Amino acid sequence: MNIIEILASNLVVGSIQVTAGDALGFLTGLLCVWLTAKASIWNFAWGMVNSLILGLVFLDQRLFADSALQVVFIALSIQGWWQWKVRGNPQASRFRATTWHEQAILLAVASIMAWLMWLILVELRGSAPPLDALITALSLCAQWQLNRRQVSSWYWWIAVDLISVPIYWSRGLYLIACLYVVFLALCVYGLRNWQQTRRTQSPMAIA
Known about the structure:
- The chain is mainly alpha-helical.
- The protein has one domain.
- It has nine helices and two strands.
- A two-stranded antiparallel ribbon has the order 1-2.
- A hairpin with a 2-residue loop joins strand 1 and strand 2 (16-19).
- It is found in: Cell membrane.
């Protein structure tokens, strides 16, 4: 039995039948987002574990863009770890604002990425090409902002969660869909926590 078959094995949680991958994705994802909301650097380590698990689950469900996204998340998590801590940059511990100009550029980039990935997914016959591509594009932009400790990243994650819940539920990934509902609540908490923390920084740090 390979690892994908193990993750696809069924478990019963209450009255709902889920897979081992759903359960592990739920637990590791919950821990990752909680640590991110608390601005702990360990969110990156658990994020990599979560991405590995979900990447295999999505691959089994033919959600190709979501599966490939997890590989990119692992790479971005390594970069984020470096940006937050390893390089020792004093700016790394400070929260940043995002200008409207930056947001406009990110929206344009996300739109182009989503369109290109949609064309690719149609050829690959993925399960949900338009939404799958949109989730991928928004998530990449959100993670890029998170690595830079930009408070605006939480708004992007909230958008990702709102789109993800119905698509994962429709694919029978009930526990992962519920996880994204919890993610949504944690994102609201994380947004408020980062905003409050940023307000306590010195004017030089905020700049």
